Amino acid sequence: MKLRIVYIILLAFLGWVPVKAQSGLDPFLEEAGKNNPQLLARFNEYLAALEKLPQVKSLPDPQLAMAYFIQPVETRMGPQRFKLSVSQFFPWFGSLDAAGTLAAEEAKSKLEVFEETKSRLFHEIRSSYYSLFLTSKAIEISSDNQKILESFKRLALIKIESGKGSSLDDIRLDIELGDLENQLALLDDQIQAQWIAFDKLVNTPDAGRPVLPTELENVDLSISKTVIRESIFQKNHILLKLDLESSALLARKEIANLSGKPNFTVGLDYIMVGKGENNLSGRDAFVFPRIGINIPVYRDKYKARVQEVVYREVAKNHEKTDQKNVLDNLLESVWKDYRDAERRIILYERQTGLTENAIEILVIDFAANRAPFEEILRMERKLLAYSLQVEKARTDKLVAISFIKYLMGK
Length: 410
Fold this sequence. Notes:
The protein is an alpha+beta fold. It has helices at residues 2-11, 26-35, 37-50, 52-56, 95-161, 167-202, 225-235, 237-258, 299-367, 373-407; strands spanning 63-75, 78-90, 263-273, 285-294. The chain has one domain: Up-down Bundle (Outer membrane efflux proteins (OEP)), CATH 1.20.1600. It is built from 10 helices and 4 strands, in the order H-H-H-H-E-E-H-H-H-H-E-E-H-H. The two termini are 28 Å apart.
């Protein structure tokens, strides 16, 4: 029951979503937090690590031994029949606390692995959601373009019937419509595959699917790159895991030092004595205490244990430095993508508007036999491309923001 409460408390943080445009995605993030198999595997690894605490902080089990004398040992008080021995091993002072600290730090590092997996999972779900939106928008724009081309085809047929147009225009339109029909079929297959990938990430068949928005909100980062970098170095879950592993190495070094200290065994013997030849009644004899000391004489192996941990600490520090460099490079790359997406949104929105104006003029000129039909088709292809590029730039920007949040451990 306690573990279930811990799980629910941790999952309370799973619904955090940084982008306002995805409010309809929140329930699916929560479902993924409860049902995604990879995330559940990391959480159960954390729970398993917690179970090490009571194991390492407890004393070893006491030992009980019994010896029965087949040939009783004769003593002055009588023959010895059997012997019971109880002993308890005690490590050097502080050894159990150091072992508990080590297990606790290792469990915390497992929790950071869980948190990192959660952040990465949420980024993957958001990216999948944006890809679904982009594909659905491509289907919508292509369908609209198909309707426009069909209108042009009717216009071309009217001009051909009136003797003012060429049948070549009709053939060109058929070619364009054929290409567009094939593109729409490909997009339909693509969105089905994307939905399946999204369902696998959420891993809840009964949860349904989110309703895709008609438009994505143009969201901007509210903090500078310098602040983002500082936040990454402080809160990134991989770096936090490495910090906890360094703390665990300190506890491991303490254990290595304490392993070179003496250990003690305290015991109690009970001997049952029977009646002797002189008809003596016999008497049970107690020997207390029995104390044993394990003396660490061969020091080289204990020094090697300490030195091993020292090398591991140096390696861990280099690993953290390397991870910081990796994260810094990732930030520079995603920041470039973010800025590029901003520029492309402005560019393609302007290009889309200009192309629409040009098509309006060309249609009027074509109707008046002042413009060739192939120019209209060329501009229609440009309009389709620019419209798709606007939506792609918007989704790329949101994906970049999502990845930055993931690097920040959110």
